[in-house]
Amino acid sequence: MLWDQGAAGGIELPVCRTISKILGMPVDLHNNQVIINGYNHGRDQHHATAIIDRLHTTYIRRFDVCDPVLLVTGADLYAGGSDFVFGLARRSYGAAVVSTARLHNGYYGRPDSDDDLIDRTSKECAHEICHLMGLGHCPDPECVMFKPETLDELDRKKKILCASCMAALDQVAGRGESAPE
Ligand SMILES: [Zn+2]
Ligand SMILES: [Zn+2]
Q: Cα(9) to centroid of ligand 2, in Å?
């Protein structure tokens, strides 16, 4: 996981630990060196696809990174026909981006809370990493792989994968029951 200096500061470690707990796998944390591009003046937003493209060419391909890479940024993101996205993953690149811009209570005029921000960022990051591992969306509104359209839908999710998504992750990660002897 690459943490950009423009992203919410001071929550990196708890977010990293929470993602690791949700997925049941270690998550490395690094300071981001990749330039956040794709700024659109008219929208005052960044194009998520442009950020992923740059992450791919200037980091993943350049340094031959094999593990999924997730960049956390403070830049507000859009993609495709959406007004905004919390995050976006491109599996073929092994790259994803998550924005903390709309995960703050302050964005919605509510009192800020680090706990809320850590919860939301962790769920969003775990969601995109699962996409990079090959998982799709889940109809269970409490599962991390449910696709939230609003902050309330993101908040309704629990910090867990449902049984079937966890089984799918176990399978792609090569975990689970060992073969009978
Ligand atoms: Zn998704
Ligand atoms: Zn699920």
A: 29
CATH at residue 101: 3.40.390.10
pLDDT above 80 (res 176): no
Q: Which residues are catalytic?
A: 128
Query: What domain count does the chain have?
Result: 1
Residue 50 inside a domain? The answer is yes
Q: How far apart are CA 22 and CA 143, in angstroms?
A: 11
Residue 177 lies in a domain: no
Cα(161) to ligand 2 centroid in Å equals: 5
Cite the DSSP H helix spans in 28-67.
Answer: 48-55
Predicted local distance difference test score (pLDDT) of residue 178: 60
Distance CA 18, CA 123 (A): 8
Structural domain includes residue 139: yes
Domain that holds residue 23: 2-172
Nearest residue to 123 (alpha-carbon basis) of 156, 168, 96, 92: 156
How far is Cα 135 from Cα 22, in angstroms, rounded to an integer?
Answer: 14
* Type of residue at 43: R
Average pLDDT over residues 2-29: 95
- Binning pLDDT at 50, 70 and 90, where does residue 175 land? confident
- φ/ψ of residue 39, rounded to 5: -75, 135
CA of 120 to the centre of ligand 2 (A): 17
The answer to whether residue 92 sits within a structural domain is: yes
